[in-house]
Amino acid sequence: MHASFQRIIESARPKERRRVVISGKRNSAALAAVLTAQDKGWIDPVGCNGASLKLRDKMDVYCADSDIWHAREDALRVLDEGEAEALLDMGPLDERFFSLLIKSDTRIKKNHLLSYVTVFTAPKNDRMTLFTDTLINSAPGLKEKAKIIENAIHVAKALGIARPNVAALSALELVNPSIPSTLDAAILSKMSERRQFQDAIVEGPLGMDNAESGLAAQHKGIRSPVPGNVDVYLFPDLESASLTTQFLAFLGRCRLGGVLAGTRVPIIIRSPLEPLDSWLLNIALGLIVNKEI
Amino acid sequence: MYRNFDEIADSARILGPRRAAVLFPDDPEVMEATAEGMKEGLISPVLVGEKKHIEATAQNLHSPLEGVEVVDQSDPQKAANLCIDMVMRGKASFVVKGKILTTYLYRALIRATRELAPDQVPCTLCFHQAPSVNKIFVITDPGVNIQPDLATKEKILANAVQVFRALGCNNPRVMALGAAYLDGKPSIAAYHAKRLRSLANEGRFGKCTMVAETNLFDLFDGHYVQADLLPDIFMVPNIEAGNILVKSIDHLIGGIRQCVTVGAGLITLTPSRSDGYEARMGNLTLGIVLAERCKRG
Predict the structure, then answer these.
(1) A116 touches chain B (CB under 8 A)
(2) Does A247 lie at the interface with B, CB-CB under 8 angstroms?
(3) Cα–Cα distance measured from residue B211 to residue B76, given in angstroms and rounded to the nearest whole number
(4) Do B142 and B112 belong together in one domain?
(5) Tens of pLDDT along A73-85?
(6) What is the reported pLDDT for A197?
(7) Are B178 and A239 inside 8 Å of each other by CB?
(8) What is the pLDDT of residue A292?
(9) Distance of alpha carbon B225 from its chain centroid, rounded?
(10) Residue B94 is part of a domain; what is its CATH number?
(11) Distances in Å between the alpha carbon of A245 and those of A8, A141, A185, B208?
(12) Residue B274 lies in a domain
């Protein structure tokens, strides 16, 4: 495992075990990770699905309804009533699940929206890097992008990046009215200049080449501390985020993990873009990002 | 079919010098690659741009321009048109983009394509080599068409298949990329992918195999990439997704990217303005091979 991911795993242990309710369709990789996290002293799992019955000797089971939707509703009720501090859902991830999730104020931060942050270490520079939004918002507008950035900044800070540099990506570094993402990126950059993202720096629009290389940015006349030092990449839409993430995973053989952001409590899931063995990393990320709870 | 850029470079060296119209070479890396390409017998350049800037750049690099034709044209659009006209008239094999906004070159190429082949659209083909797989693959179109509709994508795909077949790949594997949304509805790109697949099966693009999957996750189902299963041509949904993706391959993964823009058989080399000397040298060798293999008429 890469050193930065090892550090995440090592620092995941909370002061006290968190009670985590487990829902969704049985997934043996997810359950294996749950038991490992239990052994490591991170969590006390609580089963809330039919599959949990088999694990009665290892965890409490609140609900063993074989219908995953009934079981999920029960799991979320357990969470809302404060009998558990986190949720791990084994999937499937679809609109119905997220609609259920956002129904309660207990789970979602006020005035926030849900977004997903992919965490990886780029093979080229070994730097821990965040991509967002790689799962939830298919075509975010400016307002949504601002919230997606706030979510990502929260994740970055929890991972030890004190003053995150954010690249608002587009096809080019010039503002072009025919390409709306260049306009959004320019506005977000101006918002950052006026400190609307506190001490994080948002720069954009940036092409991937001038975001990744300070020299390439200089070549195009961009003077900013962000190029070459990017912690968070904000993608124009889900399509561009998903394609880039999958090429990174498959052609770059890059280890990926991820965390759902904008939640009040850890909601631990696994994106289809991540390998099965990322469950433990995702549990660690969920616990670290929501450490203050 | 070439498996990597070294094979392309070897082939280019055998093919020997081609006339290249270098558009706005007044940049140290462009000029250095041009001078080196000339020294290595790859190109015989004609330099088009503002003469005093070209001469100053050459002088700074101690690259004498003796015997090199320089066409003085400071207007970027006129200079781009001039370069494209040279290729149209057979006076040059391809255009090399230097320190100029790509838009000027695209405009000139779109005009020429409309004139020579009204049923085609120019598109950018980015050729890639990634460290994990010994294979060259192409991503299109990350350069010209901002938000192509289905009809435009048909033309882009036809263009890409034609180029790939010219390079010796008789039955290219094609994937039209599209994201899966949480609501289960197909994205526009996924809908286009389905339609393109039907058309490919009807033989609209010549011999090619279009895979049913629209992402690598479904294609490889959690396993490592296998070169024979990896598509030769990836079609991206739009310019944003394409541009970010192609640059990620070299900037994040450590692969190699070489971009050309093709319309009506006219070859223009369109490296990013941020590309350095080595990338530009590699680009020249790809241009030579493409110019030879995709000869017009």
Answers:
(1) no
(2) yes
(3) 41
(4) no
(5) 999 999 999 999 9
(6) 96
(7) yes
(8) 58
(9) 24
(10) 3.40.50.10950
(11) 20, 21, 20, 27
(12) no
Tokens of B239: 């310019």
Q: What is the pLDDT of residues B28-80, one digit of tens each?
A: 989 999 999 999 999 999 999 999 999 999 999 887 778 899 999 999 999 99
DSSP B234-281: EE-SSHHHHHHHHHHHHHTS--EEEEEEEETTEEEE---TT--HHHHH
CB contact under 8 A, B245 and A244: yes
Q: Are residues B224 and A138, on separate chains, in Cβ contact within 8 Å?
A: no
The answer to whether the CB of B30 falls within 8 A of the CB of B54 is no
Q: Do A239 and B238 touch (CB under 8 A)?
A: yes
Residue B60 lies in a domain: yes
Q: Tell me, yes or no, if the pTM score tops 0.80.
A: yes
Q: Of A221, A239, A143, A218, which is closest to residue A187 (Cα–Cα)? A: A143
Cα angle B149, B151, B153 (rounded to 5 degrees) comes to 70
* Inter-chain touch B247–A208, beta carbons under 8 Å: yes
Query: What residues make up the domain containing B212?
Result: 121-263
Tokens coding A100 = 């259920």
Which tokens in the block code for residue A3?
Answer: 């050193």
Q: Which chain A positions have a beta carbon within 8 Å of B255's beta carbon?
A: 251
Tokens 């670290």 belong to which residue?
A288
Query: The tokens of A7 are what?
Result: 């550090």
Helix or strand run (H / E) with residue B267: strand B266-269
Mean pLDDT computed over B272-297: 84
Same domain, yes or no: B50 and B77: yes
B90 token code pair: 């057979």
Per-residue pLDDT at A106 exceeds 90: no
What domains, with CATH codes, occur in chain A? 1-108+263-293 (3.40.50.10950), 113-261 (3.40.718.10)
CA distance linking residue A270 with residue B262, whole number of Å: 41
Domain count, chain B: 2
- CATH number assigned to the domain comprising residue B187: 3.40.718.10
Residue with tokens 């968190």: A18
Tokens for B204? 């609209």
Q: Write out the H or E segment, with its range, that includes residue B134.
A: strand B133-140
What span, in angstroms and rounded, lies between the C-alpha atoms of A127 and A230? 9
Q: Which residues of B touch A251 (CB under 8 A)?
A: 130, 132-133, 216, 225, 249, 253, 255
